[in-house]
Structures
1.
Amino acid sequence: MVVWSILLYSSWGITILGLLALPFIPIRFKANFAVFILFANALLTSVLVLPSLSGEALSFVFYAGSFVKEVPVKIDSLAAWFVLIINFTSVTGIIYGSGYMKPYTDSKAKLSLHWILYILFHLSMIWVCLLQNGFAFLIAWEAMSLTSMLLVIFDHNNTNTIKAGINYLVQMHLSIVFLTIGFVWVYFVTGSFGFEAIHEFFLKQTNIWLFLIFFVGFGFKAGFVPFHSWLPHAHPAAPSHVSGVMSGVIVKLGIYGIIRMISFLHADFVLLGEIIITVSVLTGLYGIINAAVHRDFKKMLAYCTIENIGIIGIGLGIGLIGMGTNSILLFYLGFAGALLHVLNHSLFKSLLFYTAGSVYQQTHTRDMEKLGGLLKKMPKTAFLFLIGAIAIGGLPPFNGFISEFVIYGGLVEGMKLQSISLISLLILTFAGLSLIGGLSILTFTKTFGTIFLGSEREHHHQEPKEVSMIMLLPQYLIIAMMLSVAVFPQWYLEITGKISYNLISSSNLFTSAFEPSILVAYSETMSSISLYSLIFVGLIGLFWLVRMAATKGKNRVYDETWGCGYQAPNSRMQYSGKSFSKPLGKMFNFLLIEKKNYPELTAGEIFPETRKYSSHYVDFFEYYFIDKMNQQILYFINYFKFIQNGRVQSYVMYGIVFILAIFVLTMFNLVK
Amino acid sequence: MLSFLLILIAAFFFTGVIIRTKSIASGRKGPGILQPIKDVIRLFKKGAVYSTTTSFIFQIAPTIYFSSVVMAMMVVPFGQAKGIISFNGDFVFFAYVLALGKFFSIISAMDTGSSFEGMGASREALYSLFAEPAFFILMGSFALLTGHTSFHLMFMALHLGSYVSYAIALLATFVLVMILMVENSRMPIDDPKTHLELTMIHEVMILDNSGFDLGLILTTGYLKFALYGALIVNLFIGMVPYQYAIMLFFAIQFILAVSIGLIESFMARFRMSHNPQFIFTLTSVSLLIFFGVLLVLGKFV
C-alpha cells in the first residue's frame, strides 16, 4: 500500500467510526470527541497534501462504482494550499464551537447531528479541492452545500433562520446548475468529465463563454456581486463558528474553482481579466459600502466578506492580464497576492466571526446599537476584535497589509503596460482599492467603537463576562498565524508564487523564461516591509515609554466625559453607530435603500401616544432584482396551483395517468 | 535622513507662520512664530484629566497617532536624498501607516462615549476616505509617467520639460494642498477656531484629551503640515543641488504656510454637507493629471 491510500483510508475509517459512535457518546464528551475526529482528519489530510505544496503533484485514481468509473485525484500545490487553509480554519472553528455550543446541552440529538454535519462538511470541502472529475466534483460540491446549509439552520425554531437556510439552498443550487451546464458542455464536446477535458475544450473552442459559465457558478459560492445575496442572510443565521468557517473557507472554494478554471484557459486572458477586475472592484465597493451601514454586526461581517472577495478578484484579474500581456511580474503579483489574501482573509475573518460569536453568546443580541462599553467586561475579546479589525482594514503591521500591498504592487506594475485601456482600467481599480481601504476603516472604527467602547447603551439581563478559555484559545492560534504572515511575508509569498507558477508551468504561456530574479527582488521588498512594520511597532513602544516617563508623577484626575456644558448626560446620548455611518448612507442613497417604519401623526390626533420608529437598510440587488423576479415567477406559477390541490385522490390519479402514459408510450414504441 | 530633519525643522515654524499670517491679515500683531511650540511644551509639563468612561485605547491612541506620522516622515525623500526608508511601492506604506494613526484617533474619540466626539470621528473617517483615491491616482499617474514605484525614484525622475508637465505639477500641487487641508482639518473643510462642537471635526475629537496627550496630538498636527509640505517640495526640486534645494524647501514651506493663513483669513468654511462632494472632486483633478500624463507619454493617438 502506498502512503496516500493509508492516509485516505484511515481518514475515511476514522470518520465512519466516529460518525457512528458520535450519537452514543455522553453529552459532556460529545464536543471533545468531535474535535478529536476532526483533528485526526485534518492531520491526516495535511500530511497527505504537505509534500505537494512546494513539490511534485501527487496523482492517483480510485474506482467509484460503475457509473462514474474511475475518479482521478490530483493533489497539486493549489489544492494543497486550499486544503491546508481549510484544515486550519476548520480546526479553530470546531475548538471554538465546542465552547460556543456549551449552553445547548439540553438538545442532545441536535448536537449530535450538528457535530456529524460539521465533520462531513469539513471532509466534503477537502474533497472538493482534490477531485479532478467533473461528476465527482459536483457530488462533493453538493455535499458541501447541503451539510453547510444544515449547519446554518441549527437554530431551526426561528423562522428567519429557516428562511436564510432556504435562500442559501436555492442559491447554491443555482450555482450547481451553472457548474453542471459547464461540465456537460465539456462532456458533449470532448466526451469526458475529467478536468483534463476542460483544457482540451479550451484548446479547441472559444474560451470566453465556458469560462464565464464557470465563473458565474463559482461566483455564487464566492459571493461576487450580483450573486452575493445569500451571504448577508446565511452568515448571521448560522452559529458563529459555522459562519466563521463558511466565511473563512467555503466562499474561498468559489475562488478555488475560478483559479482552477483559469489554469485550463488557453486564450482571451486580457478580456477575461478585464471582466473579472471590473466585477471585483464593484463587488468590493458594494460589499464595504453595505457593511458600513448595517447595525447587525454579523451581517456587517458578511458584507465585509463580499468586499474581500472583491480584493481577491482584483488580484486574479491582474494575474490574468499579466498572462495575456506576457508580463510575468504582473502574473506573479496578481495570483500570489490573491492566494495570500485568501489565506489572510480566512484568518482574520474567522477571528472576527468568533469574537462576534463571543459577544452574541454573552449579550444575546446582534444589534450593535444595544451594546457598548464591552471592552471593560470582555477585555480579551475586545482586544482580539481590535486586532482583527486592524488586520482586515489592511493596515500595517498585520497580515492584511501584506497581501493588499502585493495587489497594489501588481496595479502599479500594470502602469508599465502599453495598452491605454488597460492602464485606465488599472488606475481606476487603484482608486477603487484605496476607497475600499478607507471605507473599511470607517466600517471597523464604527463597529469597534459602538460595540466595545463608550458605555453600555442598554442593560442586559445577564451581566456579560469574558468567554471561556476554550473559546479564546483558537483565536490566539489565529493571531499567531496572522503574525507569522506579517513577520515572514517572503516565505508565504514564495509559496504562493510557486503555486501560481505551477498553475501555468504546463503551458508555454510566457515567451521569456520564468526569471526568479524579479521575484527575489520582490521578496526582498516584502521582507523589508515586515522589518519596517516591526520598526513601526518599536517606535510606538518607544514613544509609549517616553510618555510613561514624562507623565510619571504628574497629576492624574479621573472625571466624567466632558459634556460640553451639559450636566446630566446618560449612556443613550452617546453617538450611535447608525449616526456614525449616516452621512455615508446619505451619499450613497441610490445604492443603500433605507426602509423606514413609523406611523404618521394623523389629523385628529391631539394627544399623540408613544410610537415607535424603526429603519433598516435593504440590499439593492435583492430589492430591485431578485425580489421582483421572484414575484413575477410566483405570479406565473400561481396559474398551476390547481395541480397541487391538497386532495389525495387527485394525486393518486396523477400517478395512474403517469403509469398509463408510460405503458401506452412503450406499447407504441415511443419510449424505449 | 535629510528630509526627516528638514521636516522636523519646518514643523517648528509652520503653524506659527499660519497663525501670524492670520493675525496680520485681520489687523492684529499676533503671537510669535514659536508660540505653538511653547504651547505644546507647556502641555507636556501638565497633568491630565481622564474620563472614567475611557479605556487603554484612549491612553495609547495619541502615541500611535504620533508614531504613525513619524513613520510616514521616514518614507518621504528629499530630492536626490532617499528617505530613511525607501522601497518599491513605499507610497502605499506611507498612506496606510497614516491610516493606522487615523484609525486610532477615531476610536479614541469613540472611547469617551460622548455625544459630540463620535460626530467628529464620523466626519474624520468619511472625509479622509474620500481623499484617498485622489492621492492614489496621483501616485499612480507619477508611476506611469516615470516608470518607477517608489517616492524617491518617482520624484527624482520628475522632470519639468514640457508645458503639459508644468500643468501636471501645478495640478498635483493643488491636489496635495487640498489633501493637506483635509488631513489637517483646515479651513475650507473644517474651522479649527470654531466654538460650536456641532460644526467641528478634528477639534471635537480631542475634546477630552489633555496634558501630555493633547500636546502629542498638537505636535502631530504640526508635523503633518510639514510632511505634506515636503511632498509638495519634492514635486519641484528633483535633481536640484542640495544648497539650493534646502533653500527652496524652506521657501516653499513658507509660501504654503502663508497661503494657508491667507485662505483661512479670506474664506469661509464649506457647509458640512457639501464637504464630501468637494473632497471627491479632488479625485477628478487627479484624473486630469492622469490624462495629462497620458498626453505626455503620447498614449493618446
2.
Amino acid sequence: MSQTKISELRLDQVSREFGGVRALDGLDLTITGGEFVALLGPSGCGKSTALNCLAGLLPLTGGTITLDDRRIDTLQPEQRGFGMVFQNYALFPHMSVRSNIGFGLRMAKVPKGDARRRVEEALTLVQLTEHADKFPAQLSGGQQQRVAIARAIVLEPPLVLMDEPLSNLDAKLRLEMRTEIKRIHQTLGLTTIYVTHDQEEALSLADRLVLLRKGRVQQIGSPEHVYTEPANRFVAGFMGYRNELELPVGSVNEKTVVLDGLGAGGLTGVRRDDLGERAVAAIRPEDFTVGAGPNATEVTVEVVEYQGREQAIQARTDDGVDLHLRAGTRLAPGDRVTVSVPPERVLVFAAESPAAPEEVA
Amino acid sequence: MASSAVASPRIALRHRLAERGVDRTLLLLLPAVVFVVALFIYPFVYGLQLSFQPQPGSEAVNRYGSGPFADYRNFFADPYLRDTIWTTLKIGLPAALFNVLASVPIAYRMRGRFRGKRTITTILVVPITLGTVLTAEGLLAFMGPTGWFNRILMDVGIVDHPVRLTHNYWGVVFSLVITGFPFAFLLTLSYLTGIDPTLERAASTLGANWFQRFRHITLPLLAPGLAITFCLSFVLAFSVFPSAIMVGEPARQTRVISIAAFHAAFEQYDYSMASAIAMIMGAVELIVIGLVLGWRARLYRGATGGKG
C-alpha cells in the first residue's frame, strides 16, 4: 500500500486569476507525506480554486506545484493521478458501484484479476460490498459518498483531494462520514487535502489547517494552534470567537490592553496586534461566566436558546452592545445578570487587521 | 350510521381518482386532444380506410381486382413504385446518420461556455429558417455546373470538367444535410449540456484522457438522446419532397416515395393509391424508428446528473 506514498508536495506562490480577480493569491504550502490538510474558509475564499488547481482542472496563472521534486502544475489532470472526491460525488450514473470504483483501474490498464481484488478491497473498506452491483441512483447520499471515496482511493493516489465532500449530507450522516473519512485516512495513510467551510469538520479531521480569505492565506497551523491562537480577527471570528466588540483603546501595555467600555473598569485582554485608536476584542461565548469576576459587566438577557446541557444566551449591555454567551444556570429573557470573562480569554486585534488583505481589485 | 357508510366510499373514490391523476386539471388536455383527433387521428384513419378501397378503373383494380389490398399489391409488384422505398432510404438514412454524427463533435466542442458561442450557434442554426426551396436555389447556384464550387475546383485544377452535384442523388443529400443538420445539432447540444460536466472532470482525475472520457462517460450518456435525434432526423429526411424535385433527379435517381404518392394523388387522381403509398411510407418509418428505439431500450436512460 505504500508504493505511491509521497514525501513532499510543495506549492509555491500558486495563484489563479479569473478575469483580473485574484481568486487565489500566492499560496505557499508544503505538505509532507501522509498528512491531512484542511483548506478552510468562507465561500469565495479560494479554497476550491486551490483544490482544482492541484487536481489540474484549472490551469494556474502563477506559481509552481512540485511533487517530490517533479513539477506537476503543467500536467493534465489525467497525468497527475490524484484521487478527487467531488461535492456532488460525480458518480458515473450509467455504471454500477463496482464499475465506478474500478474505472480508474480500467483506465490504468491494471490486469483484470488484480483490479477485481482491489475493487473488492475498496468496497470492504467503505462497507459497500453488498451494494456493489447497484447503480448510483439506487444508493442513499451517504452510500454515494462512500462510492466516491472508494473510487478516489482505490488507485492509492499520491494525493487525495476532497472538495466539501460532506456538505450535501444531513447532520447525522455528516458526523458518521466524518468519522469514516478519519478512519480511512488512518488505515491507508494517504496524503489528503480537504476543502471545507465548516471549522468543526476541519478541526476534527485535519493534522493542519490552512485558513484562506479572499484568496490569501490567513494562518497555517495545527488545529489547536489555530483554535487557541488565531492570527487575526478574521481567523478568530471563523474559529468560534463569536463576540467581536469594536471598542476604543484605553491603555496599552506590552502584552495586555485595556479597552474602554463594557463594564466600569473597561475590558482587559491580550494584545495580539499593534493597535491604533480602536481595537476589536474577540471572545468566545463559552468563555463568559455568569457571576462576578474579572471584566465584569451587567447585562440584560434578551434571547435564550435551550441547548441541552447549557443555554445559548444573547444579552445586551447597558451601552447597547450585544453579547453572545453560554450559561449553565437557567436564565429567562429580561433577567439582569453580571457576566465576566478572564482577561487571558479576551484577544484584542487591530480594528483593521494588518494580516487581512484589502479588497482585491 | 348507514348514511355515513354510504358517503365515505364516495369521498374515497374521488380521492382515489385524484391520486391516479384524474381530476379537473385533466380538462387542460382537452384542446390538445381535439387537435390530435381532428388533425391526426381522423385524417389517418380516413386515409387508412381509403387505402383499402381501390378506385374503380385504376391500374391496381385492372390488374388485381377490387379487393382491399389491390393498391398494396400493385405497389409491391411494380418495381417503379416499390423501388421508391429503397431510393428514399438510400437518401434518408445516410443524411440522417451524417447529421447526427456530424453534430456530436461540434456540439461536444460547444457544450461549455465561451465567447462568441451565441454567434456560432446562430450561424449554425440559420439554415433551419431558410426553408427547402431557398436552400435548393442556393445549392443550384453554388454547386451547379457553373456555380462557384465547380469554378473553384476547375481553376485550382482539381477537375477538368464540372462535377455533377445537382440534379442527382448528391444534390438531395446536400440539401437534407443543410436543412437537417441545424436541427440535429440543436437537439444534440441540449442533450449534451444535460450531462453533468463534473462527470468528465471526475473521469480525468481517474486517468481518462479526452478520448476515453468521451468514449466511456459522455457517449454512453448521450447515446439515448442521439437515438431520438436520429429518429427525428430520419423522419424529416424520409419525407423529403421539394428538394428531391428541385435539386434531384425526380424521374429516376431521386424518385422518392413522396413523389410516388404525389404522382398518384395529383396526376392520376387515384387517392386510394396515394393513401396506400402514404401508409407504406409510415410503416417504413415506424420500422426504422422501432429498430432504433429497440436498440435504445438496451442503454442506460436514467439521470445524467446535469441541469436536465
3.
Amino acid sequence: MTTITALIFVLFGAMLLAGGKQGFVSFLGLIFNFGLVFMSVVLISFGIPYLLVTLISAVIILVITIYFGNQQGRNADIAFLTSLIVVGLVILLIIPVEHWAQVQGFGVENTEDLEGLSLQLGVRFLDVSCAMTILSCLGAVAEAAVALATGLVELEDHDKTITDTKLRKEGTKVGKEIVGTAFNTLFFGFYGELIGLFIWFARLHYDFGMVLNDKIFVSEFIMTLISSIGIVLTIPITIYIVIFQKHRRKKVNN
Amino acid sequence: MTRINPKFHIKWLTILLTLLIGIGAMVFTHFDAPFYHQTVAQVQKVHNYGRTKVTDEFHNQDFQENQTVTLKILNGKDRGKIMKSKNQFSGAGATDMQYHAGQQVFVHLGNKKSNKSSILINGFKRDTVVVFLVWLTISLLLLILKFRGSMALLSLVINALLFFAAVEIDVGTNFNPFILFSILAVIFTFVTAALIFGWSKETLVAIASTICGTAAAILIAYLVMSATHQRGMNFEMMDYVTQQRLPLFFAGSMIGSLGAIMDLSADITSSLFAVYREEPELTFWQLFKNARKIGRSIMGPLINVLFLIFVAGTFPMMVLFMRNGNNWGYSYSMIMTLGIVQSLISGIGIALTVPITGLIAGGLCETKVIK
C-alpha cells in the first residue's frame, strides 16, 4: 500500500470519528473537490481557456464545500451567494494584479527542476497563475462565509425583532473573530508551504529587497493576501445580504 | 437640516487618509531605487523584432521574440546612464517575460575591463504590487472592522518575526530543525491564541487541544510513513531543499496545519463553554456529543481551505510536466503527491481535533475545574 492510500484511509477514519455520517459526506466532498481541481489543471494544460475552466470548477467547488457535510438551510444559501459575489470581486482583482506582478511560471530557485524540460509549451503561464490563485482562495472564502452566515442566521432566529444596526454590529463582532483565526490559518499555511524557500533565502543571504521582489515569494504572497482580502470582503457582503433578505421577507409578509 | 453628521464626516476623512497613505506608499516604491543594493533600471523604450514560430519535440507550438530594451540606470555609480540590453521571450513565459516601457527591473552590469559595456536584466521589480496588496488588505480590514481588526494584524506581525527568527536559528546552528519548529509551533499557538481570543481558561483549553491535535497528526503521519516505507512519495521532488528533507517536510506540515487546527479548537471550546454555562448539569458525554456537533459542520470547509491552497500550488509544475509528454498518472505522482500528503496530514489533524477538544473541554467541565 502506498503512503497516500494509507493516509486517505486514516483521514476517512478520523472524519468518521469526528462527524459520523456528516464526516463521511465531508470526506466525499473532499474527494470530489480533488477530482475537480485535477481536471481543471488537465484541461488548462490542454489549452482550453483558463477562465472558462476556472469559473466552472470554482462554482462547483463552492457548491460542494458549502452544501456537503453542512446543515443545509438558509445559512448555506446566504454563504453560497456571498462566496459567489466575493469570488467574482476577487477575480477582478487577481487578473490585473497577476499581469502587473509578472509572477507566472518558475523562478531562479526552480532552475534545477527545469533541467531538460521544454519551456516553450504554447500555454501561457500567466493564465496558469491566475487559475491557481483563483482556485486557492475558494476554500478560505467559503469557510468564512459559512461561519459568518451561520452566526448571523442564528442571531436572527434567536431574536426575530433584531434591528439592522444590531445585526451590523453583531456581524462585525463575529467577523472579527473569524478574521483573526482565518488570517492565521492562511499565513501558517503559507509558512508551512514555503519553509524550505525561506531557509534557502537565509542560507544564501538574500536581503530584504531581494525577497520582496523574488518571483516565487511574491507569487505565494499574492495568493495569501488575495485570500485574506476575500475573507475580509465576506463580512460586509454577508451582513448586507442578511439585512436585504430580512427587509424582503417583511415586505412579502405585509 | 444644515447640521453635519459628525460620524459621516469622520468616515470620509478616514477613507481620504487611507487613500493618501496608499498612493504615498506606492509612489515611494517607484522612487526607492537608491535603497537597493542591486542596480535598478527603468525601461525607457523597447524595440521588438517580430515573432518566430517554434515547435518542440512534443509538438507544442509557441513563439519566440527578441527585443532590444533601452534602460536608464536609477542608482549606484552609473546612475543616469542609458544602456541597451537584449531580451528574448516566449509566448508561454515560464521563465522569461516581455518588457514594456516604464517598467523597473534589476540589472547586472558587466565588468568595466571589457570595452563593450554589457548589461543583463536579472529580475523584475515587484515591490510596488506587493505594497499595493498589503495596503489594500490592511485598509479593508481596518475600514470594515475598525480597531477590532488590529489584533489580527498584530498577531500576523509577531508570528512573522518569530518565524524568521526560527529560520535564522535553523540556518545558523546545527539544532534539529524538527525540534526547532516544534518549539516554534508551541510558541505560535500561545501568542496567537492570547492575542486573538484573550487570556482565559477557555483559551488554555484551546491551546492544549491545538497542540494535542497537531502532535497527533504528525505522529500518525510518521507512523504511517514508516509502516508503508514512504512508498509512492517522491521526496526528491521537494522544492527549494537545502537540508535534510524529511524533518523539513514534517516541520512544514506541522506549521501549515497549526492555524486551521487552532481555528477549529477555539470554535469548539468557546461554543462548548457557552453551552455549559447555560446548562451546567450536562454530563461529559452530552458535552462530548455537543463538541462533535459543532466540529463536524466546520471540519469539512476547514480541511478544504488548506487542501485547495496546497494542491493549486502545484499547477505550474503540473502543466509543465504534462506538456512535456508525461501522462496524467506520472505527472500526478511526481508533482502532486507531496502537496496531497501535506493536506492529508492537516486534514487528519483537523478531524482528530474535534474529539480531542471534546475530551479536554468536556473533561474539564465535568470535573468542575471551571465554574
